[in-house]
Each structure stands twice: as structure tokens, then as C-alpha cells.
Amino acid sequence: MRKSLLLQSTDAECSPAVRSRASVPPQGGRLRELFGLALLAVFISVGGNPLLAEDAAKSGSEMLVPLTLKLPEPVFAGTPKDAPRGVEIEPTPTNAPPLMVPSDVRNVAPGKKITCSDKGVTASQLARITDGKKEATEDAAALLRKGLQWVQFDFGAPHEIFAIVVWHAHDTPKIYRSVIVQASDDPDFTGNARTLFNNDRDNSSGLGVGADRQYFETYQGKIIDAKGCRARYVRLYSHGSTDSALNEYTEVEIYGRPAK
Amino acid sequence: MLVFSLLPGPGLPACRAGQTNEESLIKILQSPAASPRAKGEACAQLKLMGTARSVQALAPLLLDEQLSHSARYALESMPDPAAGKALLRALTRTSGLMQEGIINSLAVRGEPAAVPQLAILLSKPDEGAAIAAAGAMGRIGGRKALASLQTAALKSTNSLHYAVVDGILMCANRMLDAGKPAAALKAFESLYSCEKADRIRLAAFRGMILASGTKGIALMTNAIAGNDRMIQSAALRLASEMNGAEASSALTGLLPQVPPPIQIALIECLARRGDFAALPTIAKLADSPDSSVRIASITAMEVLGDDSVVPLLAEKAASSTGAERKAARQSLLELNRGPVTRQLLAALKTAAPEVEPELILALGGRGDQSAVPTLLNLANSGNAAESATALQALGMLADATQIPRLVRLVADARTDESRSAAADALAAIYDRVQSPDRPVEVDALVKTVETGEVDARLALLPVCSELTQEPVRDALRAAAVDKDARVRDAAIHALCDTRDGELLPDLLKLACDKDGTSSRPLAIRGCVRLATQEENVKLSNEKKLQILTDILNAPLDTPEKRVVLSGLGAVADEGSLALATKLLADPAVQEEAEQAVIQLAGTLASGHPSEVRMALNKVLDLPVKPATRTAAQAALKKIK
Questions:
Q1: Averaged pLDDT of chain B
Q2: pTM above 0.95, yes or no
Q3: Which helix (H) or strand (E) holds A224?
Q4: pLDDT of residue A84
Q5: Which helix (H) or strand (E) holds A17?
Q6: Which residue from A139, A193, A203 is facing B566, i.e. has the nearest CB?
Q7: d(Cα B232, Cα B209) in Å, to the nearest integer?
Q8: CB-nearest partner of A120 from B326, B421, B428
């Protein structure tokens, strides 16, 4: 099952590539726009034609493509109706426009060093987070103890990050609390940590009040637009869910490329 | 349990507890003055204690509409032949339901002498009695009963016919049980060829297989491989009951020849039979193109498998998904034939990278401590990949006694990767074995942290953050002022991550250090976490507030203030409310202060209504977001 990345709001600074998407309007009228879309469709269908990418580069902008995700099988359908009182829930996306990312962006998370705040979790358990197995099964997830916990990725060198997709656990309808995603050049996240997503509405995490909405975990995962943010480290926080005080991480995909 | 209470009628001899005996019960039966209820209860007691003496008293009651049931109930279990004779005499003197009852009692007794009389009833117009007679003859059994029933089957129709056929099947099965297969086979064959109803033919076919001896196996396998679904189903059901190596061999031989649904049924059957010889054939089906067959094969290996299937199951667990993977993992855990652990360890040395985690999972999940020495050797002397894999397995399997060995592995590691993997395994063991009431070995760890090589100390210091023993505390404190900057940094990180409440003063000192180290933000975060979130750390609200106040008194940047505000919101104290209210005036953290006030309002409203009201009004005086305004107003409303 595949789907396009969905556009999300974010506070992070944009890279020139993403800004070009936002700032360069289609020129040549409706016909050219349609032609461009057709070219894009061809580009996607052949898996990234280098000639087309080159053309885009010559024109001063970067070729953007809707990145596709391999989705697990859904376990339940639709948005559950019993959302907790007072919680503003983001609707489960249906036909949102795809998130456009540079054509050379790849999932850079597999094989990277993963650490976490729970010292009882082994490296082999953490490896589940990037093993590509996203099914809603207990053995597909790394399980961190209760309280505010985090998992952290070290790319070894600065990367441009365009999208982060997280599946905490989609076995039952649940809302993860204090989902915060930060990027940083400092492994302790004390220096230039930049917040890409934060739905901690009451600052229980101590990382500040976030403006993003809470959401139900689904097989589609949560897609966070990182807007080409440049960083060596990415950290994802959570503080349990409406289902359990524990913190599950089934899969995290980070779409980016080494920084130039 | 039966509780008897004799209630004699007027004029009866009193029967007190302890005096009850057969004679007195017989007297009750024979007394014209005794009530039917009393006689019924006497019958019930005589069922348990009656002898031939009682038969004479009970026999007349068989003809009594009110007491016939009680009387035959007593007689049917009496071993004395006289009881059977009494029932048989009553058979021709009763009719309707009373007669059917007596027929049933004769059946319970298995009275062969009743067969001629019962055979006569088969052709009588009373269908109820005829059906009861057919059933009784089946239960009594014998050649005469069978012959009579077979004769009746030729003429009978509808319900009676089914009862007669059932009787024949019962007779034939009794013959089979009695070691007379030839006679039984004839009866079954006759039914199979003459009857049209599926259920009868099915039962007859089953009997034919069972009565055919070795020939029955061919009959069964032909049926399984054939196209007659009904017969196939009967044969498959029977396959589980057929004993002997010949049956096993025949069923196994069928496996590759039959379609997937039958393969699945056969695999399950062979697993139920415990046919270990079928394992190689079943294992081959783990690669069947049909996923259900693969799952059935893998599941059967849980029972039939041995060490030889370890590589296959591990590969399946690694490469498959969903139910197939689950089955493979379960079978790896349950395998119990042969040296399974040894095979798992051997496979670790040659397994593909994607298979290794499955082998480790199995070793850990099986909990076989005998694997630990080999894993330790592998971790110590294997190549990098083997060592890493062995360490992962040790993390899941080793117990507290192995901790010094793991510490040694950290100290002796030749590369950063292997050192990190060994420390990781050590942390996992500590996490698994330590509990508040069970002290865990830390001497080796502490010694290496204090006196080991720098690389080993750097790897082990993070492990210390999970431990709460005094020696670990001292080692951390010493390392935090070590002359080597890398050791100091690692120790301070470990302190900031600690779960030990006794280290709060040390952490607070770091957090309030005005000269400011690069780790100060971590120390502040660690302090707030330990004071307000760590469930093992029990502090009074006063103490918690003091810690947070001390931190707030130091110069803080915005992220640090946010951390402290998250802690304030969790300390239900009037002082916390005052501090959070004060921070409302700081534009950088106003939003976080608003949330802390609202959070505290929920916990303090009943005890400190005026202070809470004042704080909430201050929030509402600010240009807050609509959601915050709503929350503050709701909190205020609760006070009012």
C-alpha cells in the first residue's frame, strides 16, 4: 500500500528547495501547468528521471516530487469518535495534497545510530524503529518506559531533512501525548534545537507549549514537514498515550539527504 | 450429592437417622399407608443399598404409574440377576411411556435375555416403544440383536429406521471393541452399501476403516485422496485415531499429492498424532506457494520439530510477515526435541544479518541459561558481527551472576562498537534483574568505573544512571570531578540521566552552577524530572518546591524556564502557584506559565480558592489564546 506524503504545517526554517516550491508560481498559464504536472507524473513513474531533474536545476529551481510511503495494513478504519474531552484532534487525512520533496530525498534513518532516553532498551530493540516493519504488532515496536521519553537519530553528519514520518503504534485508536520532534546539531539538544512539531498543549514536557494538534495514530503514520531543515540529529519525544503510559515506536522514517 | 429425608406418612414406623436400613425401606414400599413420595424416596435409597431382598418389593411398583420410574431406577443398577428378570417381566405388562422406561432400564443393564422380547417390539405399532427397543438392542449388542435389527432395517421407515440403523451401528461398534472385526466389518459394509443418508454412510465408512485392520489404511488414504468430500472428511477425522507406523507412513506419503486444503488438514492430523517421522515432509511444505499451508507446516513444527528445523524457522521468522512470522517465532520458542539451544547458537555463527535477531529473540525467549557460556565466549572471541549478536542475546538471557563477565567484556573490548554493545547488554541485564528489594551486583562495575581504562569508563558511566546503590553513587560523584574531561562529561551526563533520588543534591548543584557548564541545561532537566516525575523518588511538595525555587533563583534562559514551569505545574502547592503566577509577567514563557497556573488551579482550587481565583484572573487579564481563555474560565467557574 502506498500513499503520498501529506502537507503539514511547521515552524522550521525552509531550505531553498522547499522555498522554491512555495515562491515560484507556475508560469505560462494553465496549459504549462498541466504540462508540468504531466512531466512530473512521468518523472515519478520512472522513479526519478535524471534528465528532468537536470532541466529543473537549470531553470533555477529544484525538481520536487511527491514522496511515496509504503504503508502497513490498517487495523481499524476511520477516526474514532471517543476522543478525550477538551482535546482538539486533527482529522485523519483523506485527500490532502501530497508533500513535495526534492527528487533525491531518501529515507536516511535506516542504519543510523539510534539512542533513547530509556537505558533499558537495547540497540537491537531500537533497531526495530527503522527495520521497515510497520505492521501493528507488538514485536514490531520498541517499547520505552513511561513518562516523557525520546528516541534520537544521529546521521553522523549534517543532513537536509524534508519529512519525518512516525508510527508510534496503530494497533488500536490512540492519541500519543506530547509528540515533539526536534532537529539539532548538538546531541544533547541544548544548543540550537529546532522544533519541527509540537502538540504538547500544556508544556508537560517542559519543551514549551506547542501549536500543533493531537492526532489519532493510524496506519498512515504522522507526517511532519521538516522543510529542508539542516541538522545532524533528530529527536522524537512522547509522553505515553491514551492507551498506555508506555511509549511505543513502531517505525520512524526520515526523508532527507546529506547537506551540501 | 443426594440428600435423603424420609418423611413417613401417618401410622408409619418412625425412621430416624441412623436407623435406616433395607428392611425398613422395604416396609415403606410395602405399606399401603406410605405416601408415593415416601415410597419414591425409599426407592432412591434402595438404588444405593438394595439387594435381592428388595427386588420383590420393587417389582410390583414397576406397574404403578406413579412409582414405575422410581422402581426401575432402583432396579436398573442392582447387580442381582433378579432385578433384570423383574424388569423383563414388567416389559410385556406395561405400555406407553412406562414400557419405554423399562426398555431403557433393560438397555442400561445390558440384558441379553431381553433381546427376543425387544425384537418383537420392533414390529409393533407403538413407534415410541419400537424406537426405544432399537436403541436398547444396540446398547445390549450381540449377534442376535444385530440380526434382528438388520431384519427390521429392511422394512422400517422414517424415525424408526434411523433408530434401527443407529442400533446396528452400536452393535457393530461393540463388536469392534470386543475384538470381532470381521463380524463388525460385515455390518458396516452392509450399511455403507444399502443406506443412502450421508451421516449413516459416513459412520459406516468410519467403521469399515477401523474394522479392516491394515487394509483400512489404504481405504482411509484412498478416501483422503479421493473426490468424495463426505468420505474424505470422515477419513481425515479418523486419521488422527489410527495407530501404528503404517498409518503414519501412509498419511505422510499423501502430503505431497493432495491439494492445499487437504494438506492443511493432514498436517494438523499428523501433528495431533505426534508423528515425528513426518517432520521432513512437513518441513518441505514450509515453502509451499500456499500461505495457509506454510503456516500449518510452521505451526506443526512447534510439536513435531527438533533442532534440525531451527535454521528454517529462523529464516521464516525473519522473512515472513503476519501470521506466518508469528507462527515461526512461536515454534522457535516451543521446540523441545533435540539440542535446540546448541543449534540456535550454531546458527548464530552463520546466519544472515536479518536472521540473527530472530535467533537472539528465540534464545532470549526460551530462557535457557545453558546458552550463556557459549554466548559469552562468542561475545569475547567471535568476529565483530558474532560478538554483537551474542551480546544482544546475553542482554536478554544472562542473569545477575553474569554481570562481572559483562563488565569484563566492556573493559576488554577492542573496538568502540563492541564496547558499546557490551555496555548495552549490561544495561539490559541490570534493567531486567534489578528491583528495589533485590540488591544487584555492582562491585565489578564500580571498580571499572573507578579504575578502568578511559574507554571502558566512558562506556560504563551511562549504565550507572539506571542504578541506585551507594557505591554507584560514589563512583558517579568521583567521576564527575575526574581529571579527564571526557570522563567528567560522561559522568555528568549519567548524573543528569540518573533515576537515583539520592543524587538530587548533586544534580541541583550542577543545575544552579552560576558559572554554567555546557551540561547545565541537562542538569536542570534532570533535576525537574527526578523531583516531579520519577516515581521511585518520593519527596514532599515542600522539598520539590524548594528544588524548583533554587533553580529559578539562578540565571535561566527561556528553555530552562520552560522546564522549571513544567515541574511547577506538577507540584500541587500554593508556592508553586505563586511562582507560576509571577512568571506570567515574563513574555518569553508566558504561555507556559499560563498552562502551569491552569494545571495548578485544578489541584489547588478546593484548598486555596482565593489564591487560585486571583491567579486565574491574572491569566484572563492577559491576551491569551482562545483555548487558554476557555480553560482558565472553566477553572474559575469551578471555584465559583
A1: 90
A2: no
A3: strand A222-238
A4: 66
A5: helix A16-23
A6: A203
A7: 12
A8: B428
Per cent of chain B over pLDDT 70 is 96
Helices (H), B33-157: 36-49, 52-58, 68-75, 81-91, 96-109, 115-122, 127-140, 143-155
Q: Which residues of A touch B465 (CB under 8 A)?
A: 119
Q: SS in 3 state form for B551-603?
A: HHHCCCCHHHHHHHHHHHHHCCCHHHHHHHHHHHHCHHHHHHHHHHHHHHHHH
Q: How many angstroms separate the CA of residue B392 from the nearest CA in chain A?
A: 7
Distance of alpha carbon A235 from alpha carbon A229, whole angstroms? 13
Report the distance separating Cα B262 and Cα B240, nearest Å.
Answer: 14
Mean pLDDT (whole number) for B462-488: 95
Crossing angle of helices B485-497 and B520-532, rounded to 10°: 30
- Residue B62's Cβ-count burial label (10 Å; 0-12, 13-18, 19+) is buried
What percent of chain A clears pLDDT 90, i.e. is strictly above it? Answer: 56
Question: What's the CA gap between B214 and A65, in Å, rounded?
Answer: 71
Contact yes or no for B362/B346 (Cβ under 8 A):
no
- Residue A148: its chain B contacts at CB < 8 A? 529, 533
Please report the DSSP string for B2-15 in residue order: --------TTPPP-
As given in the structure block, the three cell numbers for residue B469 are 546503590
CB nearest A123 (choices: B424, B529, B559) = B424
B386's CB contacts (< 8 A; 6+ apart) are B348, B349, B378
Q: Give the count of alpha carbons within 13 A of B121, CB side only.
A: 31
Per the CB < 8 Å rule, is A117 touching B497? yes
Amino acid at B428: A
Work out the end-to-end distance of chain B between its first and last CA atoms, rounded to an integer number of angstroms: 66
Q: Quick check: B58 and B77 in contact, CB under 8 A?
A: no
Partners of residue A202 in chain B, C-beta under 8 Å: 569, 595, 598-599
User: d(Cα B1, Cα B616) in Å, to the nearest integer?
Assistant: 71
Other residues' Cβ atoms within 10 Å of the Cβ of residue A233: 23
| B165 close to B191: Cβ distance less than 8 angstroms | yes
Residues in chain A with CB shorter than 8 Å from the CB of B396 are 122
Q: Average pLDDT, stretch A122-136?
A: 89
With vertex at residue B582, the alpha carbon angle to CA B581 and CA B586, rounded to the nearest 5 degrees, is 110
Query: Cβ contacts (< 8 Å) between B532 and chain A: which residues?
Result: none
Question: Quick one: cell of B448?
Answer: 571499572
- Cβ of A188 within 8 Å of Cβ of B519? The answer is yes
Question: What is the DSSP secondary structure assignment for residue B176, as one 8-state letter?
Answer: H
